[in-house]
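re: that chain from earlier
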Amino acid sequence: MTNPWSLLMIAGLLEVGWAIGLKYTQGFSKPIPSVLTVIAMIASFYFLSQALKTIPVGTGYAVWTGIGAVGTAILGIILFAESTALPRLLCIGLIVAGIAGLKLVSPA
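^ sequence. v structure.
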């Protein structure tokens, strides 16, 4: 049996992939980025659904979206020169703290 938290991590990383991929699809007008983005979406939902067999849905969904939000924000900084203003970084840190907290208090 695969660790559901590992599946959730994979799902979250795939969410980052498809969120960043959306930028490269240019409104789904570019075929290759569009196909890769849709594949990442489907895979992300698949791994999320597998993780939610064990992890409570509220916790799993919050962690999944948190991983996606943090990962996408970090890649936005790296790839697209988005803001690194201290308040923005502190808010990203709060999301990370929330993800860690949910993991620590979850029974699964």
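Residues 4-105 form one domain.
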